[in-house]
Write a structure and sequence with these properties.
By secondary structure, the protein is of the alpha+beta class. Helices cover 18% and strands 39% of the residues. It has a single domain, classed as Nuclear Transport Factor 2, Chain: A. Strands 1-2-3-4-5-6-7 form a seven-stranded antiparallel beta sheet, covered by helices on one side.
Length: 121
């Protein structure tokens, strides 16, 4: 498993909030399958490199999970909030050192076409 630490940078693409029912049918179906039943919080659309990306925000047991899909419903990325106690000790030490006395408010496990990466916020 690859653990990557990075600071959150501003996003260049602007998100536009959309109703879940306004998402392409393939995205709605994939989101329902991938979400595993948590509460739907919202949905948005952004254009990256001329390509529409749809993000569905969910919450399960108090933790956020954001799912990004292409217009065909292919899951591109999943961001799952995790507890610090669930982060492997080496990664936890690296995160705490990188925070340099700051406060880590949230940690996400990011899964895409690559192995999971842990990212502090």
């Amino acid at each position: 498993m690859l653990i990557s630490v990075s600071l959150v940078a501003g996003c260049l693409a602007a998100d536009t909030k959309v109703a879940f029912s306004a998402l392409p049918a393939a995205v709605q179906a994939a989101a329902k399958t991938e979400a595993h039943g948590p509460q739907l919080i919202g949905a948005s659309k952004e254009v990256e490199d001329g390509r529409a990306i749809y993000e569905v925000q969910t919450k399960d047991d108090g933790k956020s999970r954001d799912l990004s899909f292409d217009s065909r419903g292919k899951l591109l990325k999943a961001e799952q909030e995790v507890d610090m106690k669930d982060v492997p000790s080496a990664a936890r030490s690296a995160l705490e050192m990188r925070a340099a006395g700051g406060t880590i408010r949230k940690i996400q496990s990011v899964t895409s076409g690559h192995p999971s990466a842990t990212r502090p916020q």
